[in-house]
Amino acid sequence: MLLMLVSLLCWVPAPKACLQCDHKIRLLHEDFILSAPSIVDQIEVKRIRDSAYETYKETSRERKGVIDPSTLYRARTEYQSEFDRFLKIKHTGSIAIDQTIQIMEKGRKILEKHLDAFIHDGLCPNKCGILNRRVMDCFSCRYKIYICPSPSGQQDCGEYPVHAEEGGQAVLNCFLPWHRLLLGRPEYHYSWAPGVPGTEKVNESDFKALVVTGDSSVVLNQLHVDEQGTYRCSLQDQNGAIYYQATFLLTVTPLPHQTRRSPITLPTLPHGDNYSPLHPTEDLLVPIIAVVTALSLAASVGLTVFLGIMLNQLRAAKKLRRRKNEGKKTLKTPCDE
Length: 337
Fold this sequence. Notes:
The protein has 6 helices and 10 strands, in the order H-H-H-E-H-H-E-E-E-E-E-E-E-E-E-H. The chain has helices at residues 2-8, 23-34, 39-61, 69-87, 93-122, 282-330, and strands at 66-67, 131-137, 143-148, 156-165, 170-173, 187-194, 208-213, 217-220, 229-236, 242-253.
């Protein structure tokens, strides 16, 4: 009967309740009106509708007068289930009128329940920053932009310390779930101001643009100590309007330096010690080099002669085997053949 009530509202020039904005409910209600047994019944339903409509209108007005598609879908689905159950029961006389009033009141409670949940948790989920989203007006049944201001009155959503080691990586992520509700395609603008975070005040002119991306997070790899500083993420639309801003204080811890061992140097000999066996003098080096050279030449000649003798012996052995094989062939008799 709530569907019937909402459809009848189309007959008068008055504001409309949220459930009426759903096309499926309107069609279902029109079919119900056509199934009414008499004109008298339609007039009585209209009277009940007029009274129930005021409560519906007041219910919507007390709760911002807006609804999102998801909440409208849940309210419509639950009411359809109640309405289908109502149609399965045959009603006559005064019992039908009483049941009609009850199903309309049931619809008001369903609408009130879903609107309460939407207004409390879903309409403005931003705890900081500014949210502009697309919602349906419960009176005009048209979509409009609803602006949820920041509870703090600022777009700045605080500072977050980030620690990393030199050579490692750091992830800067400024995503919040309500960012999905923003109209258009806002982008994340990342910038940074070098320096040790928190040691001195950072001015706006100190920030350098880093990247503009549709992704909410960036990854900094192979970090150096000189890359630490104050990083800023701001969510902006195409016109530069800022909806959300967060600051990351990145500190990069340098790796401990390895201690290097100094090379070992041998002590120098006292002046005049010309006959030390560990440090031969220049006069001794000349004969030593000559002896080593002579021995190397002798070894080379000896190796050459030895290899030559071995090669000649191998050749002689091959000739001898060849002659023996030829002699065996000539000694064969005709009988053997």
